[in-house]
């Protein structure tokens, strides 16, 4: 896709300095700018690059005054960083704005598709599925029976949505995500063989949720596994059966949440955190990376360590831990002195 400097300036409400008809078809950092690319300047320390960049168009602040000659066409705006972010969003919307049903793909006769839907090749839409308006389903997506998907949601290639799952509006499900697989439910029998417990619940994902690539969310044993509005899940996260994650909570990669734990609102959970089952994590909790959580956490706590304990206590203990060899040496020396005194 190509855009002229004039078209970009119109989107941003900016002023052109240079050739308004020049075209760009890609984005670049200002120090790596190439012909045909669009870049931006917001950080003053990158100002020298405006005179050497090969980018065809650069977004700059209205207060930018060049000190020497340059070749790049400028678009002057109130806030260069904010405007460049707006262009990124606009470009993404245009790039993803596909419509129509590709072949081969399968759509059940009982499924309902809204307006302006895109369905990529080799995708499968099961029975009684209800898909909203402007939903984008990329190739090789599987959607099981009785699934509901709200308006403006995007499912990227290879996502698997099991039966009875409910997905809200304006969600993003990235490639390889698996939503609604059976929870890890087994019961030991008398002969030592683990018998599978049927998982008859579902998964509910509310509006404005992002699910990262290869993240898995298990269906509930009974009831629902619930991901509340505005939650952002990174790649390769495991969410167990009957878990509930409160709205606007963000969780980094490789975190595992065992079954039936409840996580509050607006929490921030670092990468590789392990959360045991049947726990309650309060609101506004901060859990540092690689922490192991085996107890309930109250609102507003900051947690680190395995097993995790208070953030400040952990830091104090870690100072002593680093000094442990010196402390042991001093202790040995004192023991020798005491022994010598006793002998005298």
TrEMBL record:
Catalytic activity: a UDP-3-O-[(3R)-3-hydroxyacyl]-alpha-D-glucosamine + a (3R)-hydroxyacyl-[ACP] = a UDP-2-N,3-O-bis[(3R)-3-hydroxyacyl]-alpha-D-glucosamine + holo-[ACP] + H(+)
GO terms of biological process kind: lipid A biosynthetic process
Protein function: Catalyzes the N-acylation of UDP-3-O-acylglucosamine using 3-hydroxyacyl-ACP as the acyl donor. Is involved in the biosynthesis of lipid A, a phosphorylated glycolipid that anchors the lipopolysaccharide to the outer membrane of the cell.
CDD domains assigned to the protein according to its UniProt record, in alphabetical order: LbH_LpxD (cd03352)
Pfam families: Hexapep (PF00132), LpxD (PF04613)
A cellular component annotation (GO) from this entry: membrane
Protein's UniProt name: UDP-3-O-acylglucosamine N-acyltransferase
Taxonomic lineage from the root: Bacteria, Pseudomonadati, Bacteroidota, Flavobacteriia, Flavobacteriales
Family statement drawn from the similarity comment of this UniProt entry: Belongs to the transferase hexapeptide repeat family. LpxD subfamily.
InterPro entries: Hexapep, LpxD, Trimer_LpxA-like_sf, UDP_GlcNAc_AcTrfase_non-rep
Subunit structure: Homotrimer.
GO molecular function: N-acyltransferase activity; UDP-3-O-[(3R)-3-hydroxyacyl]-glucosamine N-acyltransferase activity
Catalytic residues as annotated in Swiss-Prot or TrEMBL: 241 (proton acceptor)
Domain UDP-3-O-[3-hydroxymyristoyl] glucosamine N-acyltransferase non-repeat region residues, every copy: 21-89
Record key words, sorted: Acyltransferase, Lipid A biosynthesis, Lipid biosynthesis, Lipid metabolism, Repeat, Transferase
Name of the gene encoding the protein in the UniProt record: lpxD
Pathway recorded for this protein: Bacterial outer membrane biogenesis; LPS lipid A biosynthesis
């Amino acid at each position: 896709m190509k855009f002229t400097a004039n078209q970009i300036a119109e989107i941003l409400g900016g002023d052109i300095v240079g050739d308004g008809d020049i075209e760009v078809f890609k984005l670049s950092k200002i120090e790596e700018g190439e012909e045909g690319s669009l870049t931006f300047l917001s950080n003053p320390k990158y100002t020298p690059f405006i005179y050497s960049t090969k980018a065809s168009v650069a977004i700059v602040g209205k207060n930018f005054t060049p000190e020497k000659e340059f070749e790049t066409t400028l678009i002057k705006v109130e806030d260069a960083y904010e405007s460049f972010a707006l262009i990124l969003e606009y470009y993404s919307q245009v790039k993803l704005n596909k419509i129509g049903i590709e072949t081969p793909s399968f759509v059940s006769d009982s499924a309902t598709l809204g307006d302006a839907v895109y369905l990529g090749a080799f995708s499968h839409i099961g029975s009684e599925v209800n898909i909203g308006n402007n939903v984008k389903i990329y190739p090789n997506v599987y959607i099981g029976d009785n699934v509901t998907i709200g308006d403006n949601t995007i499912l990227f290639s290879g996502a698997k949505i099991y039966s009875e799952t409910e997905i809200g509006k304006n969600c993003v499900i990235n490639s390889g995500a698996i939503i609604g697989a059976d929870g890890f439910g087994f019961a030991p029998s008398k002969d030592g063989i683990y018998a599978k417990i049927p998982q008859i619940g579902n998964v509910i994902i509310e509006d404005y949720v992002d699910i990262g690539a290869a993240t898995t969310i298990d269906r509930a044993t009974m009831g629902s596994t619930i991901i509340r509005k505005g939650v952002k899940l990174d790649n390769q996260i495991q969410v167990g059966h009957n878990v509930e994650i409160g709205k606007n909570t963000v969780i980094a990669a490789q975190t595992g949440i065992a079954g039936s734990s409840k996580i509050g609102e607006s929490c921030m959970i670092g990468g590789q955190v392990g959360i045991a089952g049947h726990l309650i994590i309060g609101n506004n909790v901060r859990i540092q990376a690689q922490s192991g959580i085996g107890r309930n956490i109250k609102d507003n706590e900051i947690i680190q360590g395995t097993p995790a304990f208070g953030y400040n206590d952990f830091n104090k203990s870690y100072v002593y831990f680093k000094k442990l060899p010196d402390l042991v040496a001093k202790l040995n020396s004192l023991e020798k002195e005491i022994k010598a005194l006793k002998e005298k």
